[in-house]
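Colleagues,

Please find the record for the two-part complex below.
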Amino acid sequence: MHLGSARSALYPFLLARCTGGTFILRIEDTDQKRFVPGAEQELIDGLHWLGINYDEGPDVGGPHGPYRQTERREIYNDYAWQLVKLEHAFPCFCTPDRLAKVRQEQIKNKQNTRYDGICRNLDMDESRRRAASGERYVIRFKMPKEGSIKTTDLLRGPSTTENSALDDSVLLKSDGLPTYHLAAMVDDHLMKISHVIRGSEWLPSLPLHDHIIRAFGWEEPLFVHLSVFLKPSGKGKMSKRETAEAIKGGYSIFVSDMKDLGYIPEGILNWIVLMGWGVPEDDVMTLDDMVARFDVNNLTPSPAAINFAKLDHFNATHIRLLRTDDLAARIKPYFLHEGLDVDDAILLKIVPLIRERLVTLDDCLPFAAWFFKKTVQSNPADLIAKDLTFAQSLDVARQAFEIIKALPNITPAVAEPSMRALVEHLGLKSSQVFGILRAAVTGQTVSPPLFDSMEIVGKEKVLERLKIAIENLEKM
RNA sequence: GCCCCCAUCGUCUAGUGGCCCAGGACGGGGCCCUCUCAAGGCCCAAACAGCGGUUCGAGUCCGCUUGGGGGCACCA
C-alpha cells in the first residue's frame, strides 16, 4: 500500500462520511498471475492503521458481498453472456499466438494495434456449442464501428471519443475471470456505487466503461479521475529508482514503511489529502476537519509532486497536537525496543518536554532515552565548556556539585536561580555552565530543557552523575 | 506512431470575468526569544509558461505553441 492507494481510499472515505454515504472495500483480485499472498491483509491493516474505516468489506461483510472479485466469478460470467445475447459482446476463439502475430504486423505497418475482428460475427449458436465443448475462448466487447461516445469526468468536464478509436476489449478472460473493465462495471452497478474515484490512468478507458454501462442500460456513476503523483523534482512520475532514492533519504512512499519511520496517521493523512486538493487557509486538519471541509468537486486534476519536507511538517505538527497520555503511549514502544525499563509516571513527565522537538516518533530516542538509562557516558570533550580550559570546567563542575548538594530540592524554581547565581559569580556565560551540567547529567550535548530534566532525573542521580563527570575531568 | 489529460511562487495549492500590482502552507532568508535542540512571534524574497483572440475589463473564457503526464494487454 503506497501513497497513491492511501489517497485513493481517503477521498471516497471522506466523500462517504460527509454525504452520509457508505464506503465499501472491494478486493479486485482477478489477475491470478499477479496474486501476492498477504497483500490483502496488508491493505486492510494499512487502512485500519490510517483510520480509513470502511462500512462494508471482505472482513466485515455487508449486504453487497462477496467483496472479493474472485468469489463473484459466476456473476461476471452471467453478465458477460448477457451482453453476448444483447449483441454488445461476442465470444472470441483467437489464440494468443495469432493475436501476437497480428499485433506485430500492425506495428510493422504503423497501424494502431487493434483486434482484427475475426470472431466478431461468428454464428451465435455455433459459438455457444464450441464454448460448451470446452474450447478456450474469451468474451470481447463488440465496439460499434461508427459513431462516438460522450463521457464526463467530474473534474474535467465532458469529452467525446470516436468509436473508431476504441477496441474490442476483452471482458471475460479464458480462465473464466473478468477483466477490470467488466468486473468493475458490474460490481459498481450491483453495489450501487455513486462515485468512481480512481487514478487518471483509467481516463483512457472511460469511453469503454461507459459503453459497457450503456449496453446494459444501467445508470452511470460519477467518474472522478485523480491526478498522478510525480517524483519530488516534479519531473516525471515516481519510478522504482525514485522510490529507492526516497528510502535512502529516510523517507518512503509505502504506508507500512512510514509507520516504521515514526510517522503517525494524522500526519500522513493531512499530507496526502492536500496533494490534489486545496483549502484556502488553516491546512492543519484532523480526519474530522477533512470530512467537514471536503468537496469532491474541488479536487484538482493536475499532477502533484511529492514533497517529503511537508510530510515532516505535518507529522511534527500533529505530534504536538496529541494529548500527553496519547503521545506517551505512542513513543513507549521505541524505548522498550531499545531494551529500556520505562516508568510510565516518568514518561508522562518527559512528554511535555520533548513533544515540540519530535518530527517523527522515533526522535524520542535521542531526546529522552537517557532518562531511562542507569548510567550515561558523556564524551569527555563535552565536559569542557566553550572558551574554558579543562581546569576551569572542572572547577565549575565541583562548585555546581556543592551547590546542588546543599539544595533542599532541585525543582527548576530552586535549582535554576542557584546555578544562575554561580554563572554570575564566576563571570561566565550561562551556556558554558549549563553546557557542562548538560553533558554530565544527560551524557549528550542536545537535550530537553536542563532544569526540567534534572528534576525528573532526581537530585540523587544528578549528583551521582556530576560526581562521575568530575572524576573523569580529574583524570584528564 | 496513434489517442487522451494537465499547466498560478522551488513544491502543494486558493482563485469559477472586475473584490488579485494574486491569498495560504511547506521549504528558503532575516530579526526576536533562548541553557542546547526545538517550538513560538515578527518580517522578506518568490508565481498567473508563451503567443494570439473574446470582452469595457482575463490568472479566470476560446485557439495555437511549448512543456509535463497518462493510455494503446486474456494487468489492474
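The longest strand of chain A covers residues 148-153.

Comments are welcome before we finalize the supplementary table.
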